[in-house]
């Protein structure tokens, strides 16, 4: 049985889009007959033992503290991570190292792969220098931005194979000089085993949130996720007065939290549509489906940026799997997932009036809702089901010995 060690920034039991994609990959690979484990670096901050089982998956942890000036601190972090990977490699003897971005994971794995002659697959979920710009912790073109990009380019150049989650990332790597045949696109996906029959609306929750008017359920537009600036939730709030003018009973439900939460709450309180906007704060992961069940339309008003043009988000796919209508901004990452007028509606980014028009159009044409729902669900089932897509990793893994022989490195032991 082929053993795959996944090298990760963080993992379950922490909850994030990153950990849910990891879980889906590892579970699908288990189903294909691979023996899989994960190892996380210092940025896995949940307390736990040195080796921890979560949801039937085994994860090893890296111990220690990396301190010092920026640059040296990250280099020390990579060193501690590489030492932890090395110990697992010596004990478990995996056949393949499969590192996932950020580049700190890739560089630590690369050191160990070279030392032991193990093939390395490097998977990029986003360019983390662009993600730092998007979440407000970095600036484009800064020294940190350029160093992060350079480190990632180094890992990409020396990995045996590269995987990206979407075409936007693949094309950017090709423009940097990465050979096309070195890159495989493994599209973002949904574990449909977790998205069975959607829950019925919780009537007590409906009443608690005030989602009834004149004895009827209000149409609800929802967003469930992290409140980063690039998500464009300020645009969505700005669109609400124009939407309410055309659909007086419409409500906006914002579930989650993050750096923009205080600013968004203040904006909503000052809005003429304040009475139609509800914040819940963060909710436990096991309760998220209760809030999905309240929503008719899931809105994703991401702002135009390098990050949103290159990277495909997971949330619209989860919404389609749940049988929800999807309205999203017309940025590159959304265009890879949504066909305008077929599986959802696209509207101009950074445009509150355009957002309001799109939402009003969907609410005005309820006779088309079932068509959108069927098309969205079919799209996920045929193109974004992890149970199907993960089989493509077999193609990547199987070509590694040929790649290494061509490079004069020999096949993995």
Automatic annotation (TrEMBL):
InterPro entries attached to this UniProt entry: Glyco_trans_4-like_N, Glycosyltransferase_grp1, PEP-CTERM/XrtA_GlycosylTrfase
Residue span(s) of domain Glycosyltransferase subfamily 4-like N-terminal: 17-189
Gene3D superfamilies reported for this sequence: Glycogen Phosphorylase B (3.40.50.2000)
Cross-referenced NCBIfam families: stp3
Protein name, per record: Glycosyltransferase, exosortase A system-associated
């Amino acid at each position: 049985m082929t053993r795959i060690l996944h090298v990760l920034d963080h993992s379950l039991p922490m909850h994030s889009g990153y950990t849910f994609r990891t879980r889906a990959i590892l579970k699908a690979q288990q189903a294909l007959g691979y023996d899989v484990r994960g190892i996380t670096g210092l940025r896995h901050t949940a307390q736990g033992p040195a080796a921890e089982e979560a949801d039937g998956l085994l994860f090893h942890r890296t111990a220690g503290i990396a301190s010092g000036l920026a640059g040296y601190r990250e280099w020390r972090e990579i060193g501690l991570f590489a030492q932890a990977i090395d110990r697992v490699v010596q004990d478990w003897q995996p056949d393949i190292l499969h590192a996932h971005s950020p580049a700190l994971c890739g560089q630590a794995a690369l050191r160990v792969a070279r030392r032991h002659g193990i093939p390395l697959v490097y998977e990029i979920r986003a360019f983390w220098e662009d993600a730092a710009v998007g979440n407000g912790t970095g600036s484009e073109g800064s020294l940190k931005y350029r160093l992060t990009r350079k480190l990632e380019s180094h890992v990409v150049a020396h990995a045996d194979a590269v995987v990206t989650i979407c075409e936007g990332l693949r094309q950017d790597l090709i423009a940097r000089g990465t050979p096309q045949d070195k890159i495989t696109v493994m599209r973002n996906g949904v574990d449909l085993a977790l998205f069975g029959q959607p829950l019925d609306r919780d009537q007590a929750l409906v009443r608690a949130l005030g989602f009834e008017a004149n004895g009827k359920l209000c149409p609800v537009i929802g967003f469930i996720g992290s409140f980063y600036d690039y998500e464009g939730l300020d645009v969505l709030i700005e669109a609400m007065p124009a939407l309410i003018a055309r659909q007086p009973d419409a409500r906006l439900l914002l579930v989650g939290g993050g750096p923009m939460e205080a600013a968004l709450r203040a904006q909503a309180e000052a809005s003429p549509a304040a009475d139609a906007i509800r914040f819940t704060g963060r909710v436990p992961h096991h309760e998220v489906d209760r809030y999905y069940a309240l929503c008719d339309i899931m809105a994703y008003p991401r702002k135009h940026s390098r990050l949103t043009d290159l990277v495909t988000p997971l949330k619209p796919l989860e919404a389609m799997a749940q049988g929800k209508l999807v309205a999203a901004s017309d940025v590159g990452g959304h265009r890879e997932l949504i066909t305008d007028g077929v599986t959802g509606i696209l509207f101009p980014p950074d445009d509150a009036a355009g957002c309001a028009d799109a939402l009003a159009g969907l609410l005005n044409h309820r006779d088309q809702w079932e068509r959108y729902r069927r098309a969205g669900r079919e799209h996920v089932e045929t193109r974004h089901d992890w149970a199907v897509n993960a089989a493509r990793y077999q193609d990547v893994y199987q070509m590694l010995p040929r790649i290494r022989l061509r490079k004069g490195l020999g096949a993995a032991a």
